[in-house]
Specification:
The complex is a heterodimer of chains A (203) and B (77).
Chain A (H helix, E strand, L loop, with lengths): L2 H5 L6 H22 L3 E6 L4 H16 L3 E6 L32 H4 L7 H6 L3 H15 L5 H10 L3 E5 H6 L13 E3 L1 H10 L2 E4 L1
Parallel strand pairs in A: 1-2, 1-5, 2-3, 3-4
Helix pairs in contact in A: 3-7
Chain B lengths: L6 E5 L6 H11 L6 E6 L4 H12 L2 E8 L2 E7 L2
Parallel strand pairs in B: 1-2
Antiparallel strand pairs in B: 2-4, 3-4
The chains are: A alpha/beta (203), B alpha+beta (77).
């Protein structure tokens, strides 16, 4: 005889009980879901201007939706937490990146300049130029700068945490980074956060 | 622009996710039941504003498109 049989009276109608239980269970689950604060955990590993956007866009938007957000910056991703951001973009070896001019008449802007890798690799200052064009394109299209998105994240209490191992690996100093970093941690500290999150992204 | 709204937000020229982030910021400074009229030119904001309201519990009272501009009226929950 199970414990439940002792508690419940002998004349209990099991089917009525099951019906009551199912209804109660549904209500309880709905209450739980309504009270649940969704959470997002992002692992940001890239440090170029183009790759800087996804983690900050997703983190700031999730915080606007009322989610609890943590971002773990590791390897090149640490660049995104520097006090002075010098993020660059390289079209080299990235055939998906359109090379378009952000100025001039529309027909000129629409040209996708196919530049051979050999030229991109050999021309000094090519990345600086590509970065300048990208920054102008971003501005022309009303897309926020990385600095702006980062401040929004900080304002919205997004937890920015950084990988301590990377600091030592690349010889960084804590002073190079923004003081809003919540913690300097390792994989063992972030994985439990990622485990409990509803959404976890590796970027 | 809806002139009956308590407050207005001009998000024209801004791109994803700025219209949503600015909406959230404006709503945070408002009281429950007040309304915010947002003007945006970002075509993505049309669906995103609905999703934002669904998630946050604010009510999207209206959502209109006129001459390449989107006008949303949101009531704070």
């Amino acid at each position: 005889m199970g414990k439940l049989d002792i508690i419940l009276p002998n004349n209990l109608d099991k089917s009525l009980f099951d019906q009551w239980f199912d209804e109660r269970f549904e209500t309880r689950m709905a209450e739980r879901e309504a009270a649940h604060v969704p959470s997002l955990a992002i692992i940001a590993t890239k440090g170029t201007l183009d790759w800087a956007y996804p983690p900050f866009i997703l983190a700031s938007t999730a915080s606007a939706l009322g989610w609890d957000v943590s971002v773990f910056f590791t390897f090149y991703g640490l660049e995104l937490l520097k006090k002075d951001l010098h993020l660059e973009v390289s079209p080299l070896g990235n055939p998906s990146m359109p090379m378009k001019m952000p100025f001039g008449p529309q027909w000129f802007k629409d040209i996708n300049w196919k530049i051979p890798n050999l030229v991109m690799a050999g021309m000094p200052g090519f990345e600086k130029m590509a970065t300048g064009l990208m920054q102008q394109t971003v501005k022309n299209n009303g897309v926020a700068s990385i600095e702006e998105l980062r401040s929004i994240c900080i304002e919205a209490d997004v937890k920015l945490v950084a990988c301590q191992m990377t600091v030592e690996l690349f010889g960084h100093s804590h002073d190079d980074f923004i003081p809003e970093i919540k913690d300097w941690i390792g994989a063992a500290s972030f994985l439990p956060v990622a485990q409990k999150s509803d959404v976890c992204l590796f970027i | 622009m809806n002139t009956h709204a308590t407050q207005t937000l001009d998000a024209r020229g801004m791109n994803c996710p700025l219209p949503i982030l600015r909406t959230k910021k404006a709503l945070s400074a408002m009281s429950s039941g007040e309304t915010l009229a947002i003007t945006s030119t970002d075509p993505g904001s049309f669906k995103d504003m609905q999703a934002f309201c669904n998630q946050t519990g604010h009510k999207l009272l209206s959502s209109n498109q006129e001459q390449g501009e989107f006008v949303f009226v949101v009531r704070k929950s």
